[in-house]
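Worked example

This section walks through a single chain of length 281. The input is the sequence exactly as stored; nothing has been trimmed or padded.
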Amino acid sequence: MEYALFYAEGADALPYVPAEDDIGTWVDDIEARGVSEYGERLRPEQDATTVRVRGGELLVTDGPFTESKESIGGFDVIDARDLDEAIEIASRHPVASFGRVEVRPFVQWRGAEPGARIVPAGLAERPVRGRRYVLFVIVDPTGERAAADGGSGDDDPEAWVREMDGRGARLFGEVLRPPSDATFVRRRDGEVVVSDGPFAEAKEWIAGFDLLEVADLAEAIEVASKHPMARGGALELRPTWPFDVHGDHVERVEREAADRDARLEPSAADAVGAAASGAAS
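Given that input, the structure is written out below as tokens.
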């Protein structure tokens, strides 16, 4: 059964100690066990861009979809036997020792091919041909219903998937089970602590996600704006932040310190302006 592991600091976060980061060992283990499908580290929330469509108008803002103090710093997709194995895998991730790991099962669709995986085979080894963004699909109970804009064809998520797959802009993605099926895993003083509940105490929640590969933020915004949930909810774009899991993490943290708290992405206004200029030409 496939699960998404989301990594965040959490309300009771402890200081991150780079010298104790054994992420390379963890990655080697899950790859050797054949349960790893794909994973990415994400740029901090300063580089998030949120896309909404309201009343037919595109609204794009800098920053994450929620004002919660928690933010996802990365994710993995794993294929475990069951929730117990997924919890065991999550409990040994370095983030579990100072933050927490959210374990979210994917929706199991009727008629799905037995043994099929969400992530295409060989994706992790495929060269990056553009800029990669994670597109978080957000449910916002206060958002207008997609049908309120009167578009029927535009409200078909399968049509969006077919278009973006055809363009090569979408590498994979899937719907998650609701927050009521989330499991949180932490490791404190050598003890594994498991609890139920939503990722953050906010009215919005992550319903699914897609990995995009596009030219730039302007194209990522255009892709997100076409998603049906842009009208009924929101889409958060987060650029990936590659790193060497076997590298020197003390050196990495020192090297990245200068831009960790800065926005490296173009502003939302500049990206939308660039997209409009490109469309006009």
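What to look for: The two ends are 47 Å apart (CA to CA).
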